[in-house]
Design a protein that fits this description.
Blueprint (H helix, E strand, L loop, with lengths): L11 E6 L5 E6 L3 E8 L2 E8 H12 L2
Antiparallel strand pairs: 1-2, 3-4
Length: 63
Amino acid sequence: MARCEICNKAGQSGNNVSHSKRHTRTRWFANVQKTTIYTDGVPRKLNICTRCLRTQYKATTKS
């Protein structure tokens, strides 16, 4: 479903474990946002995770 176009981060699957130790299957999805990134002055629309978005922001605002 949701996959980061920079780091290829996607969802993970596993078990929810209740207090009584019952295991039920579940999915955890990556927090992927649709955003516009400027690459060499050219805007590109990408689906990227919030970690990559934060890293891109830090790289562009660093002085």
